[in-house]
């Protein structure tokens, strides 16, 4: 951020807000393993210990009684949402929504529900799952623990500020491009698996129960991810363990990003999260079921997901599209914000081992159905979004063209 940008922000925030920045990590944190990325990634792609410019905490902006949003958060007209969310808004009768799947019914052998989840993966790449085996009390406790964290004083949160190299901790931007347009959200990112990357010292210590609750929550979502992987494999007509083996077997990875979307004074100009497809395998999202915001791109429209109580929203990432040779779909999605209420959502990522090569499953390849994607590691996909920020489906689509010449 140059001096002119800083003056503009201070003016627009009525001179009452103090922009807190913390670009570095202490020496002990700098010695932590850099999220399993290779030395080549760290040195040639700009993912160092500092962000390219001072970090703007969106929550601080929101709490400063702004009349509008700073220019850095204003999207071009073509990218702005074509609707805004009204709290407690009811969906229109007959409105398209992502399918709702009863997981217990599938596990009990209901073939019809198994076919419905297959159709959802092929058409939407998204579905809601109910009766999934995770206790509602644990889901609520995890969401509220993180809401309490984001309500802490800014100084307490800054102690966990992240950097581009590890991404782990308290953050406010994706991508390292200087001067890039920003999204209206703060977040917290942490690792679960592999265990070598699970560093509880990088998890917040307040509220007092957050580490215990989040640890239990993560263990339950790993189990849920394993169940979903078996179902998705079976629906491709391959062995139930095939997708899990492609992810690295027991050496898969798992992490979580908690999203905090403060109230936005001009929600029609900004986005909470720009359009993107997830670079990994499966995302299990615990949405804010009181405030809508997630939208899925389907055909020529954006569908606002109406989250059911005690349900997870599951979406397939680019790695699943690649492994299935585009039988399954990783869909573009985004988040819109509102002026009335904050939102908190927990995205749990069930991903391949970082350095494993991902390519279409051999069982799905034939002379009439050639592979659509070259072998690439999950790290290469993840590095793209960490370098450039959300960019639709540009990266996975660019590699289709490589194969097809």
UniProtKB/TrEMBL annotation:
Residues 30-39 have a biased composition (Basic and acidic residues). Coiled coil: none annotated. Residues 19-39 are annotated as: Disordered. GO terms for biological process: defense response; negative regulation of defense response to insect; regulation of defense response to fungus; regulation of jasmonic acid mediated signaling pathway. The keyword Oxidoreductase applies. Its cofactor is Fe(2+); L-ascorbate. PANTHER family: OXOGLUTARATE/IRON-DEPENDENT DIOXYGENASE. Belongs to the iron/ascorbate-dependent oxidoreductase family. This is Fe2OG dioxygenase domain-containing protein.
């Amino acid at each position: 951020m140059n001096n002119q940008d800083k003056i503009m922000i201070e003016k627009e925030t009525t001179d009452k807000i103090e922009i807190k920045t913390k670009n570095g990590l202490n020496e002990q944190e700098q010695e932590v393993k850099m999220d399993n990325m290779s030395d080549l990634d760290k040195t040639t792609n700009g993912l160092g210990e500092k962000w390219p410019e001072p970090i703007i905490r969106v929550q601080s902006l929101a709490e400063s009684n702004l009349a509008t949003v700073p220019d850095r958060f204003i999207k071009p007209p073509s990218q702005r949402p074509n609707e805004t969310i009204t709290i407690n808004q009811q969906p229109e009768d007959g409105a398209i929504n992502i399918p709702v799947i009863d997981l217990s019914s599938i596990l009990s052998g209901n073939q019809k529900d198994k076919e419905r989840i297959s159709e959802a993966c092929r058409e939407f790449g998204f579905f809601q799952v109910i009766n999934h085996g995770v206790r509602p009390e644990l889901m609520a406790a995890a969401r509220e623990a993180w809401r309490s964290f984001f309500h802490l004083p800014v100084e307490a949160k800054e102690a966990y500020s992240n950097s581009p190299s590890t991404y782990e901790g308290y953050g406010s931007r994706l991508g390292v491009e200087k001067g890039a347009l920003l999204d209206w959200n703060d977040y917290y990112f942490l690792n679960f698996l592999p265990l070598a990357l699970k560093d509880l010292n990088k998890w917040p210590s307040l509220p007092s129960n957050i580490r215990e609750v989040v640890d239990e929550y993560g263990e339950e979502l790993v189990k849920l991810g394993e169940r979903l992987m078996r179902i998705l494999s079976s629906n491709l007509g391959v062995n139930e363990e095939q997708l899990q083996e492609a992810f690295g077997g027991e050496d898969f990875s798992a992490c979580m990003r908690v999203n905090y979307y403060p109230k936005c004074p001009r929600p029609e100009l900004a986005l909470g999260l720009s359009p993107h497809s997830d670079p990994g395998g499966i995302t299990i999202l615990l949405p804010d079921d009181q405030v809508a915001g997630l939208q899925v791109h389907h055909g020529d429209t954006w569908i606002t997901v109406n989250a059911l109580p005690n349900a997870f929203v599951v979406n397939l990432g680019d790695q699943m599209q690649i492994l299935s040779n585009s039988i399954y779909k990783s869909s573009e999605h985004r988040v819109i914000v509102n002026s009335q209420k904050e939102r908190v959502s927990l995205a749990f990522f069930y991903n391949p081992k970082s350095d494993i090569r991902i390519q279409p499953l051999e069982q799905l390849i034939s002379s009439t159905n050639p592979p659509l994607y070259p072998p690439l590691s999950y790290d290469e996909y993840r590095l793209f979004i960490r370098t450039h920020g959300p960019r639709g489906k540009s990266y996975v689509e660019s590699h289709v063209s490589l194969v097809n010449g």
